[in-house]
Amino acid sequence: MTAAEPRLVPAVERARAILDYISEAHEPPAQAEIGRALALPKSSLHGLLVTLTALGLLNEERGRYTVGAHVLKWAGAALDQSDMAQEFNRLIGAIPTLERHTITLSSLIGAEVVYTSCRNSTAPLGVTFRMGMRLPAVFTATGKAMLAYLPPENRATLTAEFPPPLTPASVRDRAGLEAEITRVRQDGFSVDNGQVRAGMTCIGAAVLNRAGLPVAGVALSMTTEEASPSAIAEAGEAIADLATRLSRFTALA
């Protein structure tokens, strides 16, 4: 170990690995599954799970584990202290077209988008966006927008294993996704036409850094009944404006 490298505490490293694994699991895992995946001894794993549960970092029900509510306190503090989230919340009140709609901010984490800030409207979308919510990037408006500005080889890696569709409208393969991405680059915004939830249409745009790479995505959600061609065009212009303002903010930060 060089002088510049920090000395890490193994128990903390293992605790983080456990939290990461459980947070990314599609179904709550049991202790045996966690142990196999992380190659942790049964005795030390049991002690860590008991401790994390007692501290509110995990929930245990019938021998299976989910992330605990105390983690949300940390996530909320991180977002409150995030310059990007603060600027997002300031700007969505400054663009009139955005006022009546659900507006979200998300990041691309692997092949998923993770929602980092949300303002839900009263429209009956059938979905309530929340901080920490994860969805397959290929189906979401923000995911499509961010994928459109990745280098093709990076995008190919992230979409090598296509997820099962969420609705009958969900894009089914990489060829269909690439056709959508071509339109995103042409129009400056993306459209999720009921691919996440039937009856909901979302319009998204990418927040880019100085190198032109995506650092976040923003989206506006409306009911499909509202989503006329003119409404989509108006929403696309507004959400692209929001993304451009956040991109400028990112460049100055």
From TrEMBL:
Any one Gene Ontology molecular-function term assigned to this protein's record: DNA binding
Gene3D superfamilies the record matches: 3.30.450.40, Winged helix-like DNA-binding domain superfamily/Winged helix DNA-binding domain (1.10.10.10)
IclR-ED domain residues are: 70-252
Q: Which PROSITE patterns match?
A: HTH_ICLR, ICLR_ED
| Superkingdom assignment | Bacteria
The Gene Ontology biological process terms listed for this entry are: negative regulation of DNA-templated transcription
Identify the keywords attached in UniProt to this record, alphabetized.
Answer: DNA-binding, Transcription, Transcription regulation
Domain HTH iclR-type: where?
A: 9-69
> Which PANTHER family does this entry report, sorted A to Z?
HELIX-TURN-HELIX TRANSCRIPTIONAL REGULATOR, ICLR FAMILY, HTH-TYPE TRANSCRIPTIONAL REPRESSOR ALLR
Recorded protein name is IclR family transcriptional regulator
Originating species: Haematobacter missouriensis
Starting at the broadest rank, the lineage of the source organism is: Bacteria, Pseudomonadati, Pseudomonadota, Alphaproteobacteria, Rhodobacterales
